[in-house]
Write a structure and sequence with these properties.
By secondary structure, the protein is an alpha+beta fold. 46% of the residues lie in helices and 16% in strands. The chain has helices at residues 2-17, 69-76, 86-95, 119-134, 140-157, 161-174, 187-192, 195-205, 221-232, 281-293, 299-306, 338-355, 359-376, 380-392, 399-408, 412-422, 437-440; strands spanning 28-31, 37-42, 48-55, 99-104, 109-116, 212-217, 254-258, 264-272, 314-318, 326-334, 429-433. The strands form two sheets. A six-stranded mixed beta sheet has the order 1-2-6-3-5-4, sandwiched between helices. The protein has a five-stranded mixed beta sheet with strand order 7-11-8-10-9, sandwiched between helices. α4 (119-134) runs parallel beside α9 and α13 packs antiparallel against α15.
């Protein structure tokens, strides 16, 4: 098995380097008779099957008064379904060596399955997944237990500086927009959620016409079609597509300093960024690798850590979503150095926006991103994640084939232009948890 994986990796690397005239991963796409979207890649090298089913049912489809409902609904899917208890589901999955997983973020929620592709094991695992997706029971006893557990976890998390920083950052850049909702919910909102709330949310959002099925592994096209029908045929139908409102731009810069007994200051800077299908994605992706996404190859870490020793880690990233996900710069530093570190980050960002990267920085970024591309698709599970993303966000089927060419064609002018239009340092928020007045100085 290890040799086969190595052979697959080498084949993919050769394809990347030699600009293939055929599909790197031939993605097949169709719609079931009930309206579910299916994305399939066959791979006979391993006797495995990976499947995921996603829905527009992430935290952004909740409300402030019922924050946490989306997460709780997804979490209880496998804790009792189709006449089976959570223990029976877990035991039967273990008996056939299958693994259940889940996905949950602001946009989407769903379940995933990894199983052997041998007939007996695969049939049992798929039968269980079909029950979980289509006949969840949301047992009242389990719901109360999970609510108690989640509320305890929320209260504990609320004492941690990194959680406080993240919560305030989201609230400041998104305000009343649902992207500002906490995925786990708040202790007081979770406490009020009822079984009927979960049932209603499931019926509205876990619907067949909004389902995205990704299938990767050792099955034929006909078998994949039957699997997609089995997993979605008995799902509810929706009254229309779910939508997330536009994210408004920030009107001005804002800073928030929060006292905390932590030894270090936790610093976050940012603003709403870009959508998943934004035409500027690749210039921003490559440019951010140079700015703060490339580890030791990035400017922010070089300026903050390598030159000045102000932090162990400093980074930046774009997190594109259905609507504008966050652009964030983050670091941790000693309280008495927070002001200096913040000033260095702001100066580095302004210089990058004014001048852009150098030709040498762009050359090295391209080499690193292109050279690392095979590692992005070196397992069935990683490919499955890409299939789910391509399907959910309606990206081109050639997304993976186009990835390397899109990176290679990014120019210095593209990066400068994209960052100039997308990142405005005069309209960014700054959160410092563990703030120290003496350490902040004039950087406030």
């Amino acid at each position: 098995m290890r040799n086969k994986r190595l052979q697959l990796w080498l084949a993919l690397a050769i394809c990347v380097i030699s600009a293939p005239a055929y599909a790197l991963l031939p993605i097949q796409h169709w719609q079931t008779r009930n309206g579910a979207q299916v994305y399939f890649v066959a791979n006979r090298d391993l006797p495995m099957l990976d499947v995921s089913v996603d829905f527009p049912a992430g935290s952004a489809f909740g409300t402030r008064g019922k924050s946490g409902l989306a997460s709780l609904t997804q979490g209880l899917l496998k804790l009792g379904a189709g006449g089976l208890s959570e223990d029976e589901i877990a035991r039967r999955m273990a008996d056939v060596g299958a693994q259940l997983g889940g996905r949950f973020d602001s946009d989407r929620a769903g379940m995933s399955l990894r199983t052997l592709s041998s007939a007996g094991e695969m049939k049992e695992a798929l039968d269980l997944l079909a029950r979980i997706l289509q006949h969840p029971e949301f047992p009242a006893v389990v719901l109360e237990r999970e609510k108690t557990r989640i509320i305890g976890a929320i209260r504990e998390a609320d004492t941690k500086p990194e959680v406080i920083a993240s919560r305030n950052f989201s609230a400041m850049i998104y305000g009343a927009h649902p992207y500002g909702l906490r995925s786990s919910g708040e202790a007081d909102t979770v406490a009020l959620l009822t079984r009927q709330d979960l049932v209603d949310f499931y019926r509205r959002h876990y619907t067949v016409d909004q389902a995205v099925v990704a299938i990767m592994g050792s099955v034929s096209r006909g078998e994949a079609e039957a699997i997609a029908d089995q997993l979605t045929g008995e799902l509810p139908r929706s009254g229309g597509p779910a939508a997330i409102p536009d994210v408004p731009p920030l009107e001005r810069a804002e800073s928030r300093m929060i006292a905390h007994p932590a030894l270090q200051s936790h610093v976050l800077i940012g603003a709403p960024g870009i959508k998943r299908d934004d035409p500027d994605y690749f210039p921003l992706f490559v440019g951010n690798y140079i700015l703060g996404g490339g580890g030791f190859a990035s400017r922010i870490l070089g300026e903050v850590r390598e030159k000045r020793g102000l932090a162990y880690s400093a980074y930046s990233y774009f997190s594109p979503l259905k609507e504008r996900g966050p652009f964030m710069i983050g670091l941790q530093t000693r309280k008495d150095q927070a002001g200096e570190a913040l000033a260095v980050v702001r100066a580095t960002l302004k210089e990058f926006l004014a001048q852009g990267p150098t030709a040498d920085e762009l050359k090295k970024a391209r080499q690193n991103l292109v050279g690392g591309f095979p590692l992005r698709i070196d397992s069935n599970r990683k490919i499955l994640d890409y299939l789910g993303m391509i399907g959910f966000y309606r990206l081109p089927l050639t997304y993976l084939d186009d990835f390397v060419p899109n990176v290679e064609k990014v120019t210095l002018a593209d990066i400068r232009d994209a960052f100039a239009r997308r990142v405005d340092p005069e309209r960014m928020v700054t959160v410092i948890v563990g703030a120290d007045e003496a350490g902040l100085g004039s950087a406030k």
